[in-house]
Amino acid sequence: MELAGPDSFELVFDHEKFQVRPDSGLGQFTPRACSKIPKLYVVAAADQLMYVGVTKQPIRNRLRLGWQAKGETGYYGYAWRHALTSATLHVWYHENAKDRSSRDVETVEAEVAFLVRTAGQWPLHQTEIHFYPSSDIHRTHARRIFEFVAGPG
Fold first, then answer.
1. Which of 78, 96, 104, 144 could link 66 by a cystine bridge, Cβ 3.0 to 4.6 Å?
2. Domain of 111?
3. Could you tell me the mean pLDDT of each successive run of 10 residues in the chain, 153 residues long?
C-alpha cells in the first residue's frame, strides 16, 4: 500500500457553500484531487484534526455531497460545516489500489481516528467510521498522517 501526499487546501465556507480560498495559492483542486482514485482526507482547524474521511470521487464532488445532504437518506452531511468557517483540507492518494478498492484507506481512516482518540477524544466532528483488521502498514500510514496534522508525539 502506497499513500502519496498530502495536497493541502484552505477552505472557507458557511453551512450552505464552500470554496478553496483563492489567496491560499491553491485556488483550485489539483488534478489528482479531481481523480477517481481512493483518497483519504483530513479536515483540520486550530491545529486539531476535526474529521477524517475517504472517497473515490473527485474531492469537490465529495465535499459537495457533504454540503447538500439534508438527511433524507439518513446522511446529514458534514457536521463541521455548521461549527467552523474555515479549515485546512489535507488529501492523501492510494495510487496503487487494486481495482480502485477503498478498503485500505478505510482501514487507515479508522486507525487515524483511533490515534486522535488515544491522544484525548474522538475527532470532534467525526460522525461515522468503518473498522477493519489492520496491519503494520495501515498503522504506519495512520501515524504519519496523524503526526503531519497534529505534530509528533
1. 78
2. 3-150
3. 93 93 70 95 93 96 94 90 95 90 94 95 89 96 95 69
